[in-house]
Design goal:
Length: 878
């Protein structure tokens, strides 16, 4: 016998979306039906139910069933459109009578659902009588009229119908005998009368089954419960096929609410609050009642859930296309294009995360998004600029996620219309929803559809704002990234725990538009209040401007104000710009160089709208200012910036000095205008700053290192982080050295030379004239770029890092295990004094960290730490 090859290949299911038309709930046909598999499943259930109801005669053998087909899905998943599609197909079956879809939310307040159905059937019979399809006086019509009369006797007894018996009616014996008992009997037999009424109606119309569909039952609790009870009590004939759409969770909640109500207030008041045992027993009882009710009425075997487009795309059998004009494109490819153009996401991994989230949205939301995205295709239209086009797209995205944003307490109108800084809204959103660390990089992976939607919408706004203004990048780094970096080590709220995020945000005024440099400086003053390893935070301790050593000083150990020539005002300004004074509780100032102050100053300068204002802002940024520690209760001023020991902003500059500064600021203005309006992913800056922050603590220090060397190393760590993350986002990690440049520039140089493609974000930041002025000129020679004319690296290389010389002299003494001796306590005291850490703020954690840093101990007993702490606090050496 010849073997025949059997073809087991499954037929591809093709779905075509037409967002402009599909957004309106309507019945679809053929390939336009999104939920084709679910429709096939429902049709098969209907065929099975028809078999069970075939030949049913209630007058011979009464039988009641609960065979409601339940269509479940979230709001906007396409249930109504599915129902219309199903309805259109059912109407073509000659053996089924279809009534108009029942939407309880559109019925009158006092109109009972059951009466509505009876009336609709009667209306259909009357129409056929009027059209003479049914002959008056026929035997079938007479039977039908009798059934209607029998049914009518019990209808006034329905709940909520005013035709029920009034208590006074029972005093009239004639009424009781004539009408009252007849009504009661009719009510008792209402279900069987209805079965017969349906049977006779179908016979008159030459049909075998009645199809009744309910839509949006779950949206109105007041109307939802009567529908469920009508299904349970009356729509029980095997000849009736009922269809119910809605969210199963809301049905469950509706049933639970009714079960609690059935207990009554008196019972709950007297027993539920009486003993703790009822706290467990009553909820369990309600859960059992709800479960049994749902299993009986909405049987699991007849439940159909509408799957998302994401789950359909995961199947090899289903292909989804988007209809555009006369062409069809794969939905996943179009989403890939839209994600790249709206969020700037190019990396496949993150792009797939966004596509999976978007295709998992309710169908209605996706259709709205697709309509919004279609505007991207016409971005070249002359009447609309790219920036305005992107703004309209962002607004459309925010409109789609309006409910999610409102739920997350985001003021959408102000955020979209640019009333305030986007990063203030963003930070507030992260803090209010307690997702500072989890959502700061805009991954829609919070397992919370509402928060994920808000994250995606805010991310789109951020990307659009950055594309319009490079200032937003620097604002995000200072206002958001610097706070997020603490989320893994600090508690969120102040619960007798210091430091914490809540106080950090409040102290730094991060939720207010007070200027980036002020915010960055206040962040540093808070950090210094608790952290005595400043270089980990991009801070470099230097000699204070007014500092004088009582015992004499090394002529080579210069102060900041001694290394610049006063006549060269531009270099003086650039050199003072990163400096910050932090006042301790005794009023003494500790001076630091801050890497983040440079970024903040760049942001403040380029935020200005013209060169003159930029120049004025540059001069203002160059003023040395002092800020208090967090716990400085003896401060002589509030937490506000104040002028320190530099010249006042009103200092009159010579024409030559003014021209020199203006020339430099014009370079910054030219650089600012070179921003290419590229859309960068909302998470890219977060990734860059995570890499930067993790590099700073690992930068190798040595006693010979100067301020210029360390600041250069910090800047190169930042630039290398940008280069790596941008390359990995756009083209993977091909030819990249992923290590961080902690002790030389070689890693950065190799990455720079081996990746010659255009990297707009890196190129823009790297070419900043102000940032380049602090970089070692030798680096530019090594990478084949002309060195900048304005550069103060060599000058800063004459400035010592405060405490570095003492550390060098003491290393030989401290390279041993600490003991519980006064001598070792003195070593700790000297260490704290060199860093100008006040005796009053030395605590257990500071002592323990100092021991681990200065001595060879890998583990320190708490007893020893406390003993050293007591001696430090009682010492008179301070």
């Amino acid at each position: 016998m010849e073997n025949k090859r059997v073809n087991h290949e499954k037929k591809e299911i093709k779905i075509i979306l037409n967002p402009e038309k599909d957004i309106h709930a309507a019945g679809f046909t053929d390939n336009n039906i999104v939920h084709q598999l679910e429709l096939k499943q429902v049709k098969q259930i209907i065929e099975n139910l028809k078999e069970t109801g075939k030949g049913y005669c209630p007058d011979k053998f009464f039988r009641r069933v609960h065979n409601t087909i339940t269509l479940t899905g979230t709001r906007g998943s396409g249930k109504t459109s599915f129902l219309y599609s199903l309805f259109n197909e059912i109407k073509t079956q000659k053996d089924i009578l279809t009534l108009e879809i029942v939407d309880p939310t559109l019925t009158e307040e006092k109109g009972h659902i059951f009466l509505n159905i009876v009336a609709r059937i009667k209306e259909r019979i009357d129409r056929n009588i009027d059209s003479k399809n049914i002959k008056i006086g026929s035997e079938k019509l007479d039977k039908w009229n009798k059934c209607l009369n029998d049914l009518a006797a019990g209808l006034p007894m329905l709940d909520g119908i005013n035709g029920g018996l009034d208590p006074s009616d029972w005093n009239d014996t004639t009424f009781v005998m004539r009408d009252g008992l007849r009504r009661v009997a009719g009510a008792n037999n209402l279900e069987s009368y209805f079965h017969e009424y349906v049977k006779q109606s179908l016979d008159l119309l030459n049909k075998d089954y009645l199809f009744i569909a309910f839509d949006d039952v779950d949206t109105d609790f007041a109307k939802g419960w009567p529908v469920l009870e009508t299904l349970r009590k009356y729509l029980t004939s095997p000849q009736i096929i009922t269809f119910l759409s809605g969210d199963l969770d809301l049905y469950s909640f509706l049933v639970r609410k009714k079960q609690w109500k059935n207990f009554g207030k008196t019972l709950l008041k007297n027993e539920y609050d009486k003993d703790d045992i009822y706290v467990n027993e009553y909820p369990e009882l309600v859960e059992k009642l709800e479960s049994q009710y749902m299993l009986k009425l909405l049987k699991p075997e007849y439940r159909v859930t509408l799957s998302t487009l994401a789950s359909k795309l995961a199947s090899n059998e289903i292909k989804i296309y988007l209809k555009e004009d006369k062409t069809e494109n794969k939905l996943s490819q179009k989403y890939s294009f839209y994600v790249e153009n709206a969020w700037g996401i190019k990396g496949d991994n993150m792009k797939n995360v966004y596509i999976k989230f978007l295709t998992s949205l309710p169908l209605r939301s996706q259709l709205s998004l697709l309509n919004t995205f279609s505007a991207i295709d016409s971005i070249q239209e002359e009447f609309q600029s790219p920036n305005n086009q992107r703004h309209q797209i962002t607004k459309g995205i925010s409109d789609v996620f309006y409910s999610e944003l409102r739920t997350a307490n985001v003021d959408i109108w102000e955020m979209i219309n640019g009333y305030g800084l986007i990063n203030i809204y963003l930070l507030k959103f992260l803090l209010d929803n307690k997702i500072l660390d989890e959502a700061s990089q805009f991954f829609p992976k919070l397992n919370n559809p509402s928060l994920d939607g808000a994250v995606v919408a805010i991310g789109a706004v951020l990307s659009e704002r950055i594309s319009s203004s490079p200032f937003e990048m620097f604002d995000h780094i200072i206002r958001v990234s610097n706070i997020v970096s603490k989320a893994n080590t600090w508690t969120l709220k102040a619960k007798n725990t210091l430091p914490n995020i809540e106080n950090f945000v409040a102290h730094s005024r991060s939720l207010f538009d007070y200027g980036l440099r002020k915010t960055a400086s206040l962040q540093s003053s808070y950090i210094v209040s608790f952290e005595y390893i400043p270089q980990n935070e991009g801070l470099i301790p230097i000699k204070t401007l007014q500092e004088r050593d009582k015992t004499g000083r090394d002529e080579n150990d210069l102060r900041l104000d001694e290394i610049f020539e006063k006549s060269h005002i531009l270099y003086n300004h650039i050199g003072t710009l990163p400096a910050i004074g932090i006042q301790d509780i005794k009023g003494a100032n500790n001076t630091f160089y801050s890497f983040f102050n440079i970024l903040a100053a760049i942001g403040d300068i380029i935020q200005q709208d013209d060169v003159k204002n930029m120049k004025d802002e540059f001069v203002r940024m160059a003023q040395f200012r002092t800020f208090p520690l967090y716990f400085n209760t003896n401060q002589r001023f509030s937490v506000e910036e104040r002028s320190g020991y530099g010249e006042d902003i009103s200092t009159v500059l010579s024409d030559e000095q003014n021209n020199e500064i203006m020339s430099f600021v014009q370079k910054i203005d030219t650089w600012k205008k070179s921003w290419k309006d590229d859309i960068i992913p909302p998470y890219l800056l977060g990734r860059i700053m995570v890499r930067t922050a993790s590099t700073f603590p690992n930068i190798e220090l040595n006693p010979e290192m100067k301020v210029g060397n360390l600041l250069h190393r910090q800047i190169i760590a930042f630039l290398n982080a940008i280069l790596i993350e941008e390359i990995m986002e756009n083209q993977g990690n091909s030819r990249l050295r992923l290590n961080n440049p902690t002790n030389s520039d070689q890693i950065f140089i190799d990455n720079f030379k081996s990746n010659v493609n255009d990297h707009p974000l890196f190129n823009f930041i790297f070419n900043c004239p102000l940032l380049q002025s602090y970089i070692n000129p030798e680096l530019f020679d090594k990478i084949g770029i002309d060195s900048p004319k304005i550069n103060i690296y060599s000058t800063l290389s004459n400035l010592n890092i405060k405490g570095m010389v003492v550390v060098k002299n003491e290393l030989s003494k401290r390279n041993r295990t600490i003991k519980d001796t006064k001598e070792d306590t003195n070593v700790l005291i000297e260490y704290f004094k060199e860093r100008e850490i006040d005796q009053a703020i030395v605590n257990f954690d500071r002592v323990k960290k100092a021991i681990l840093k200065l001595f060879t101990n890998k583990r320190v007993l708490s007893t020893m730490v406390n003993n050293h702490l007591n001696r430090i606090q009682n010492s008179d050496q301070w």
